[in-house]
Amino acid sequence: MKKSKVLLLYTGGTIGMIENPVESSLKPFNFDQITMEVPELNKLNCTIETIAFENPLDSSNMNFESWTQIGDEIFKNYDYFDGFVVLHGTDTMSYTASALSLMFQNLIKPIILTGSQLPLGQVRTDGKENLITAIEIASKKRNNLSIVKEVAIYFENQLFRGNRTTKVSSDHFDAFKSYNYPSLADIGVEINFNLNYLLKNKIKKIKYEKGFEPSINIVFFYPGIIIKNVVKSIRSNSSKVVVLMSYGSGNLPIENELEEFLNSSKKIFLNVSQCKAGKIEQGKYETGMQLKKAGVIGVRDMTLETVIVKSMMLIKKYPLDKDKFTKVLLTNIAGEISE
Question: Which residue segments constitute the domains of the chain, with CATH numbers given?
Fold first, then answer.
């Protein structure tokens, strides 16, 4: 079997930083010399090529234009490489992974995102192991076909479906969790893929879609919230999609003013739980049932990150068609919803 070719795309983030010995500050290093910084990469049974953003981005500056830039670069090189590794800051990595999973449909090659909590140039960095293993996963094949055929995040010995992840820690190495879907691989001495949980795409023709509209408003509910202020705020906001951050399985304090507003407004309302694990079940309690009757859409077990990204894509695609928006939102495109 010939060596796999992996494209390493550096977009920014902590992992690509080394210390300037003169100024004692961090700066991006030259990714063309990645094997000098991480010589262990020479031992992998694959060929690695690198592309770096001209102006690397802190992940807090990532937006839908950045997702498109990453997607375009991968799509342009899709036929020439067997796998892709995207180095990315951790803070918004789950959003980017969700976006890429919806942009690239019918994948037969892996797109693995990774990063680190400490810069690659520091002695105790977690970046070196994350980088090496992410590349190894991206190069893995069985019967000359890639084992992973989806967008995933690799971090601290775990491979997760990208659109199921949430960042949960700013200072622990195991910074990501996937609460509603099992890990795709467990990494120890060996890389053990959980084959039953991997996406199985049989359509070989890739479908690449892009286009986002950031017309999303998020309302976080808490005990004692003044409903009339909530209604006033939503009404004055120009966003087309409103995410209602509810309690538990999808419950909110329903008052007549809110119920009347939900029934009369032309905005699209989505019900997302403040809980990280579990799913929205609007028929479980009376308050949830009232939301359902008012036309609020329960998002089942999608993460908040995926709901936001998917809504941005769908409101761009179907700006005047709420029924089509709803149907596609609740359709499983890339494993983001449990069947």
Answer: 4-208 (3.40.50.1170), 216-329 (3.40.50.40)
